Automatic annotation (TrEMBL):
One of its GO terms (biological process) is lysine biosynthetic process. SUPFAM superfamilies: Isocitrate/Isopropylmalate dehydrogenase-like (SSF53659). It comes from Lachancea thermotolerans (strain ATCC 56472 / CBS 6340 / NRRL Y-8284) (Yeast). This is homoisocitrate dehydrogenase. The keyword Amino-acid biosynthesis applies. Pathway: Amino-acid biosynthesis; L-lysine biosynthesis via AAA pathway; L-alpha-aminoadipate from 2-oxoglutarate: step 4/5. Keywords: Amino-acid biosynthesis, Lysine biosynthesis, Magnesium, Metal-binding, NAD, Oxidoreductase, Phosphoprotein.
């Protein structure tokens, strides 16, 4: 995991690394309501050691919010994040699988409204018996099929319904995601001595959309050879990428992908390290960052107090790294890794019997 070196990627607005920070807390649905408080407890624990002062604002978004208010992402939530907060933690969303008039995913909308163009997902094995995995999946966060431009109509010839969705890949968004992926690779090279960027696509079928993504990524690399030339550059078709990721995860370092492929790859990669409950992410923009665990709302265990808080705690650390506080973030990472190595306090998804709060308290004690 790149960890402290992430901070060097922060834009100028992060560079001040303010000691007084206001964090928006958006639990969302399901287990999001159980794990976001874990992130808050960890941040409160950091205050005395690192001289940080945290204020928190509880905010609403999600399916339950939609049912209560008619809006999955209230305007007030966006206004407060923009005008009062320096960062945020987002829990999970319980989106319906069937079409509901007026509803769309609030996390997708949040990423667009705040310009969070990159979703950075580190996946790293910790235990000695685990397969050697140490990759970062950098997912374009604002377009592809997630622009949600769809329509359903009746085919005149057959009289049956047809559904269509637009896949959008732009040169601007692709340049942004290629640049941050290469910057991450460059920082990993400084830590590990070498780095590889793998561009994932399906341009053999989608020659224009994925073709543009592939072309622009290569252009960004080639036009900045003086900076990135020491990074190994690879390309991989997405279906063979999935196969190789499970067969040879040690072959991959930094992976950059369009929105949909990045989503699928990062969720799949979580299986290599035991559970979605341990994989963090950061939604990164030019002047804002939102930490977000990679797991969903898990309605089957919501309310039971057994959800794994590790992904949220790690996402809290990633948020701090992008906000310019690597030392505080490193304390969190070390405590979580120690908890996982100890292997005695763990939630059921990892084969244990501990509660959410027991894991949180164990991590806090190690900090």
């Amino acid at each position: 995991m790149l960890r402290a070196s992430f901070t060097q990627l922060a834009r100028r607005s992060y560079a001040s690394a303010s000691k007084s920070l206001t964090i928006g807390l958006i639990p969302g649905d399901g287990i999001g309501k159980e794990v976001i408080p874990a992130g808050r407890q960890v941040l409160e624990n950091l205050s005395s050691k690192h001289g940080l002062k945290f204020d928190f604002i509880d905010l609403q978004a999600g399916w339950q919010t939609f049912q209560e208010t008619g809006k999955a992402l209230p305007d007030e939530t966006i206004d407060i994040l923009r005008n009062q907060c320096q960062g945020a933690l987002f829990g999970a969303v319980q989106s319906p699988t069937n079409k509901v008039e007026g509803y769309s995913s609030p996390i997708v909308a949040l990423r667009k409204k705040l310009g969070l163009y990159a979703n950075v997902r580190p996946v790293k094995s910790v235990l000695p018996q685990e397969r050697p995995v140490d990759m970062i999946i950098v997912r374009e966060n604002t377009e592809d099929l997630y622009i949600k431009t769809e329509k359903t109509y009746i085919d005149e010839k057959t009289g049956t319904r047809v559904a269509e969705a637009i896949k959008r890949i732009s040169e601007t968004a692709t340049k942004n995601i290629a640049n941050i992926a290469l910057e991450i690779a460059l920082q990993r090279q400084k830590v590990n001595g070498e780095a590889t960027l793998t561009v994932t696509h399906k341009s053999n079928v989608l020659s224009q959309s994925d073709g543009l993504f592939r072309e622009v990524c290569r252009q960004v690399y080639e036009s900045n050879k003086d900076k990135f030339g020491s990074i190994k550059y690879n390309e991989q078709i997405v279906d063979s990428m999935v196969y190789r990721m499970f067969r040879e995860p040690e072959c991959f370092d930094v992976i950059v992908a369009p929105n949909l492929y990045g989503d699928i790859l990062s969720d799949g990669a979580a299986a290599l390290v035991g559970s979605l409950g341990v994989v963090p992410s950061a939604n990164v923009g030019f002047d804002f960052v939102v930490g977000e665990p990679c797991h969903g709302s898990a309605p089957d265990i919501a309310g039971k107090g057994i959800s794994n808080p590790v992904a949220t705690i790690r996402s809290t650390a990633l948020m701090l790294e992008f906000m310019g506080h690597p030392e505080a973030a490193q304390d969190i990472h070390k405590a979580v890794d120690a908890n996982l190595r100890d292997n005695s306090i763990k939630t059921p998804d990892l084969g244990g019997k501990s509660t959410t709060q027991q894991v949180v308290e164990d991590v806090l004690s190690r900090m």
